[in-house]
Specification:
Length: 196
């Protein structure tokens, strides 16, 4: 149970098999203080036998310990996907903090507000995940064109306030590629086509 790459999980499983051992890969998606909490998460994948033997102990460590199947790399890929989302959120939040600081507003009050709207944000992410999985980018709720307006405003605010603009510049670059590729009238999830 450690953060690792999908290939490391495959290598570990291969090593375990050479020693006639069952291998279960685990990835902890919780901070140390959250371990033991019913909401703490440990992703697992690999040997079903090993999971079934370990499940009571795993549930003691983390109430949410989903088994993601026998594809041993699934836990590490899922954790890295989770961390990508988390770190992207961190960077967006830190830029948000600079926006607030530049206007003399409280960062902690904004953090509390984000905590209260987290379910709404989660619903939006769930919607975009379904758009990407089904490749249905037409009839957008939020088009790339519409969201580009916000990215332009982030760039303008950073310039006006004289704050670091690396985050909006990164976003602007991706959006510009999407527009140049003709995805402007598609759902925001169409940005994944640029990343592909």
């Amino acid at each position: 149970m450690t953060t690792g790459s999908p290939q490391q999980a495959r290598d570990n499983e291969a090593w375990a098999r050479t020693h006639n051992a069952e291998y279960l890969d685990g990835a902890i998606a919780a901070s140390p203080t959250q371990i033991g909490n019913p909401a703490a998460t440990i992703f697992t994948s690999g040997s079903l036998t090993a999971f079934q033997q370990s499940e009571p102990f795993l549930k003691y460590l983390a109430g949410n310990s989903p088994y993601l199947g026998e594809q041993v790399s699934a836990a590490s890929s899922t954790e890295l996907a989770f961390l990508s989302y988390l770190f992207g959120s961190y960077i967006g939040f830190f830029h948000a903090a600079r926006i607030l600081e530049s206007d003399g507003l409280r960062v902690d009050a904004f953090g509390s507000m984000i905590s209260h709207v987290s379910q709404v944000v989660g619903d939006v992410i769930k919607y975009e995940s379904e758009v990407i999985q089904s490749e249905t980018y037409d009839n957008p709720q939020s088009s790339v064109n519409m969201c580009m307006t916000t990215v332009d405003l982030l760039m303008e605010q950073a310039r006006e306030a004289g704050i670091n603009k690396e985050f909006p510049m990164f976003a602007h670059g991706l959006f510009k590629k999407a527009l140049n590729a003709g995805y402007g009238h598609e759902e925001l999830g169409a940005l994944i086509k640029v990343l592909r």
